[in-house]
Amino acid sequence: MAGANLYREYMKICTVWRADPVRSGKCLGEYVRRRVAEEFRQSEQTVVPDAELCSRRLESLRALASDRYAKQYPRVSVSSALGLTRAECAKVIVENLHTAEGAEQEKSLLGKLKERLSFKTDIRESTPAESKK
């Protein structure tokens, strides 16, 4: 595939992969756009040193964007190891990881998960002095 064709195909992938403004700096769509801009600085006139490698990467991105492997290997259960659904996990992550920078959190992510799942938190840990008795 020539450099111009590769550039056009990468641009199609960029339109398919939307950037998530909530996850700035952690979003795969944002990363792909940044890498395409770095690799194809002169847009269609860029000479690609290793076209085969670019083609393989493009095919990998297409597979991810089309959920090829999610369809090929579907999940058996709809919950996570904690018993939360995908939507509940996303909600907990958004609540905890996307707060204003510098703001101190009164509870950790694990603490909020324990609270949400109603785990008992009154389990006592024995101290070395108690274990000698």
From TrEMBL:
Listed name of the protein: Mitochondrial nucleoid factor 1
UniProtKB keywords: Mitochondrion, Mitochondrion nucleoid, Transit peptide
Organism annotation: Rhipicephalus sanguineus (Brown dog tick)
Listed GO biological process terms: mitochondrial respiratory chain complex III assembly
GO cellular component terms, A-Z: mitochondrial nucleoid
Annotated localization: Mitochondrion matrix, Mitochondrion nucleoid
InterPro entries: UQCC2 (IPR037698)
Chief location of this protein within or outside the cell: mitochondrion
PANTHER family: UBIQUINOL-CYTOCHROME-C REDUCTASE COMPLEX ASSEMBLY FACTOR 2
Transit peptide in keyword set: yes
Pfam family, one: UQCC2_CBP6
